[in-house]
């Protein structure tokens, strides 16, 4: 059976030319896109928190209802080639990096062949986040963190 993914597709094709399986394979599964971010109105600096979307499973850093996430969480944003380079995505994100003509990080599963390489390198939020539902919105600032990378 032929592979669904073209060889080193991330180096050979623009984001807009990827197949749906290739697009999904770019996600390293770190979960950082699913954490609550706060924008400082004075400096316009984006701050990450250790609070995750209510659908993010903190034990696996995966969405509990990926297929229905937009209905479940109206504020959930679909990453598309048009917005892939935006700053709200982590600097280590494959979508953001490729949109900015940067290489994948050395620990990316497409390069290592191991999905656990993200966690081993320290970039996964697995076991490091709390559900946003357990904290009042007024207290989100208390959960600002500085992530590796």
Automatic annotation (TrEMBL):
Pfam families: CxxCxxCC (PF03692)
Signal peptide (residue range): none
Protein name stated in the entry: YcgN family cysteine cluster protein
InterPro entries in alphabetical order: Puta_zinc/iron-chelating_dom, UCP006173
Coiled-coil region list: none
PANTHER family to which the protein is assigned, alphabetical: UPF0260 PROTEIN YCGN
Species of the source: Isoalcanivorax beigongshangi
